[in-house]
């Protein structure tokens, strides 16, 4: 696999979820799966998701980390160059879990054409506000906008 840096870049920290292993680990030191699910549970004591069978740190949003799904830490899959990944269509469905709200906003914005981004954000805020408290929605939008506007 070659030399893998110990920690993440500031750019990667800004683009990934607050509970992503990319907040503390460099690419290659965690695996990436297509999306959240029962096989990648959040471990509060560690601060990120882990694979249920291997215990490996696991990113569940390839479109945020810029890597396709792969067993980079556990399987020695070579790291490809980081590049934009499209959101999975299932990531465009409003989650029930408020910890996934930020990722949902990112998916919605990255799926929108630039000319439709304002309308997409307004609609997403409205829909999210029907399921989650306003303070949760505002916090997610603030974090997303602070990073997505810089992209």
Strands of the biggest beta sheet: in what spatial order?
A: 1-4
The major β-sheet equals: 2 strands, parallel
* SSE run: HEEEEHHHH
Shape: globular
Please give the share of residues in helix.
25-40%
Give the tally of β-strands.
Answer: 4
What low-confidence regions span 5 or more consecutive residues with pLDDT below 50?
A: none
From the alpha carbons, calculate the radius of gyration and give it in angstroms: 15 Å
Q: In terms of structural class, how would the helical and strand content be classed?
A: mainly alpha
Q: Give the integer mean of the pLDDT values.
A: 91
Number of helices: 5
Strand content range: 5-15%
Protein described:
With 151 residues, the protein is mainly α. 34% of the residues lie in helices and 8% in strands. The chain contains five helices and four strands; from the N terminus they run H-E-E-E-E-H-H-H-H. The chain has helices at residues 10-15, 62-65, 101-111, 117-131, 134-148, and strands at residues 31-32, 40-43, 48-51, 58-59. A two-stranded parallel sheet has the order 1-4. A two-stranded antiparallel ribbon has the order 2-3. A hairpin with a 4-residue loop joins strand 2 and strand 3 (48-51). Helix 3 packs antiparallel against helix 4. The longest helix is centred in the last third of the chain and has 15 residues, at 117-131. The protein is globular and about 40 Å long. The chain starts with 9 loop residues before the first helix and ends with a helix. The model has no long low-confidence stretch (mean pLDDT 91).
């Amino acid at each position: 696999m070659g030399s893998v840096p110990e920690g993440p870049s500031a750019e990667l920290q800004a683009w990934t979820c607050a509970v992503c292993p990319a907040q503390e680990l460099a690419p290659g030191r965690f695996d990436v799966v297509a999306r959240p699910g029962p096989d990648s549970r959040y471990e509060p004591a560690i601060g990120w998701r882990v694979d249920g069978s291997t215990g490996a740190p696991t990113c569940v949003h390839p479109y945020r980390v810029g890597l396709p799904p792969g067993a980079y830490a556990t399987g020695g899959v070579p790291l490809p160059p980081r590049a934009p990944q499209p959101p999975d269509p299932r990531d465009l469905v409003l989650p029930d879990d408020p910890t996934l709200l930020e990722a949902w906003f990112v998916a919605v914005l990255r799926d929108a054409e630039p000319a439709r981004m304002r309308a997409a954000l307004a609609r997403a805020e409205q829909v999210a506000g029907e399921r989650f408290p306003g303070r949760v929605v505002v916090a997610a939008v603030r974090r997303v906008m602070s990073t997505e506007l810089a992209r």
